[in-house]
Each structure stands twice: as C-alpha cells, then as structure tokens.
Amino acid sequence: MEFAHEIATSQVVWAILCIVLAVAVIREMRKENVKREEDLVDLYEEQKTEAKKNFDEYRTESKQREEKLMNHLERSNESQEQTAAALQSINRTLDTLEGRVDRIEKLNYSSVKRIEKKGDGS
Known about the structure:
- 98% of the residues lie in helices and 0% in strands.
- By secondary structure, the chain is mainly α.
- It has one domain (2-121).
- The termini are far apart.
- The mean pLDDT is 91.
- The chain crosses the membrane at residues 6-26.
- Residues 26-107 form a coiled coil.
- Keywords: Coiled coil, Membrane, Transmembrane, Transmembrane helix.
C-alpha cells in the first residue's frame, strides 16, 4: 500500500500522466481538425459544383434571352422598313396630289380670268 501511495504522490508519475493526457488531447484535436478540413473541402466542392451548374443555367437563359431580343430587333427593323416605305409612298402620293391641285387652281384661275374678261368686254 505504501508503494501505491508513493507512486500516487510521485511527481514523475503525475508528469508522465500529464504528458500522456496532453498527447491524447493534441492527437484528438488533430483528428477533429482533419475531419473539419475534409468537411470544408467537401462543402467547397459541393458549392463549386452548384455554382458551375447555376452559371451554366444562367448562361443558357442569357443566350435564350439574347436570341429573343435579336429576333425582336429584326422584327422591329422590318417593321420600320415597311413604315419607311409606306411613308415614301404617301409622300409621292402627296406630291402627285399637290401637282394636281396646282393644275386645277391654274385652270380655275385662268377660267375665272376669261369669264371676267368676257364680263368686262360685254
């Protein structure tokens, strides 16, 4: 019993126990750190994969949107070309009408002048 008492009160034994305990704690912390690091790497890979997937989806949507916009732009350009052609046609028609109105006015003016001369001459 005395021997057990001496061992229990010996500083060397307590020092060895403290060292063993410290080594066990450090080893356990390293295991936890390695596990955390592996979990972080896995999480990083998952996020990377998800980000790539999202990027690909957004890129596809963007290309579809761009294609729709280009189609709309082409239709708008065609519509504007048709409008421009219609306006040119209207402009030509107005020029023709203007010429006709001018001729009618000249004929009426000359007819009125003749009538006035006949009326003055009688």
